Amino acid sequence: MQIGSSNSDAGSTPDPTGTVRLAQTGHARWVRLSHWIAAISVLTLAVSGFVILMAHPRLYWGAAGNDLTPALIELPITRNYRHGGWEQPVAFFSSADSPVSASRTYDIFNENSWGRSLHFLAGWFLALTGAAYLIAGICTGHLRRHLLPGADELTPGRIWDDLVGHLRFKFAPTTGGPPYGILQKWSYAAVVLVGLPLMIVTGLAMSPAMTVAFPFLSGVFGGSQSARTIHFCVFAALVLFVVVHVLMVVLSGFRRQMRAMTVGG
Amino acid sequence: MKSKQIVTTRRALITSLASAGGLLLGGCSKQLPPTYGNVLRMGDLLTYTAHRLLLPKDRLAKEYAHGDITSIPAVGTTNPADSQQAAFNAERGPAYERLQAGGFTDFRLSITGRVARPGTYSLADLKRFPARTQITKHTCEEGWSAIAEWTGVPLRSVLEAAGILPSARFVNFYAFDDMAEGLDMLDALHPQTILAYGMNGRDLPVPHGAPVRLRVETQIGYKSLKYIQRIVVKDEFDDLGKIGDLQNGWAWYAGI
What we know:
The complex is a heterodimer of chains A (265) and B (256).
Chain A: H1 29-55, E1 58-59, E2 73-74, E3 90-91, E4 100-103, H2 112-140, H3 142-147, H4 156-167, H5 182-204, H6 208-213, H7 216-219, H8 224-251, H9 254-262
Antiparallel strand pairs in A: 1-2, 3-4
Helix pairs in contact in A: 1-2, 2-5, 5-8
Chain B: H1 8-18, H2 39-54, E1 72-74, H3 92-101, E2 108-113, E3 119-122, H4 123-128, E4 132-139, E5 145-154, H5 155-161, E6 170-175, E7 180-184, H6 185-188, E8 194-199, E9 202-203, E10 213-215, E11 228-234
Parallel strand pairs in B: 2-11
Antiparallel strand pairs in B: 2-3, 4-5, 5-8, 6-7, 6-11, 8-9, 8-10
């Protein structure tokens, strides 16, 4: 495909030879397809996941946790945050530290009926697309060649240069695809090889049926509530990634980047 | 705790979005929960069929030690006799109040439908079955969880005593409040699926479902219906109408 001038793209530097073609890599069709399915799935998961979190904005560590046990983190979102709608607690046993029960007298925010089902539907799309992506990524060498840094790149000098360049908002004009910079490779590899797989596994570690079938799912995280807390922390990290990712797309040449990830050229 | 309210505008939107995918996962068989052409219910059905196809069927939920028992909130209906509560039923609420006043000695659990010997069971009848006590985790759809000790009779024992027929595919439960739930045979016959009448070494308290509640350890908490009044065994799927999960926008299968 012929590519005209890239000089109109924000952030790109004029090429000395004038109107030229930059490297015409673009993205492979399967990369583009999986990127957008994953992007829509992740956006849907983020919104529905936040709706689910709003129903109970407390996070715990261990197997179990609820409004009558101490929280690790309390998020000040929705009217459910530290709501006071509880009847007088009743102790189960005679001991001083006996577990108690209390009846809720408060109408909490809860949109989990559609929130949960939408979350799991998007989860299916992400898991299936992610599995296909990883298989294709291994078979085509995409992961090895484009996402995992080579030994020659992992020198303190090159990492430092890439870091300083990003902090000064100065980076090479995009080629609309690979090869990627070292920080770029690390970011993408962290998301596709660690972040998203961890989201799926910690998500499954909260499922009663899945943990009955495979107890190690929650066991490796120290319990389903620990898995829920990790699920939230990785979500926060992924939100940060998406913000920086979109910012970089804009700064490095929005039109060319979008062309490379949509029509491919 | 899940609420009973139909969000009509959102449902309409989702249903219209779903029409394109209607050919996929139609769920028209009466052996499966229907999707009504709703894309969210298609996702639920995918999860249900995938779990039933892929997950091992002989595993037990983790059972904890007595020292692991935690505090536990009582949510949703906490007293079926309280007319102020959302799922109060004007006929069964007062009936529950009378039973409660008599210490539930007049309580009778009925089992009907596809059983050879339909009938009723008093609390004493249920306690004559070999009991099962299990310390398990209750996972609420809201996001919290709690560990408690539950004592009761395996549902399987009661179904077999009633002579469940080989054609039976679903077991449905109706409560004293406006709540109902259904299970397929795999969960209904699971060794840890019990009709619980005891909690943490005492009689089941009213806020937690007295006199008898369901415990389904393989699914989310709302499937463990409280205040059970009757059990109906069916050959085909029944969405349980306005008091069931589906017509209120909730997943019928809540394994995740």
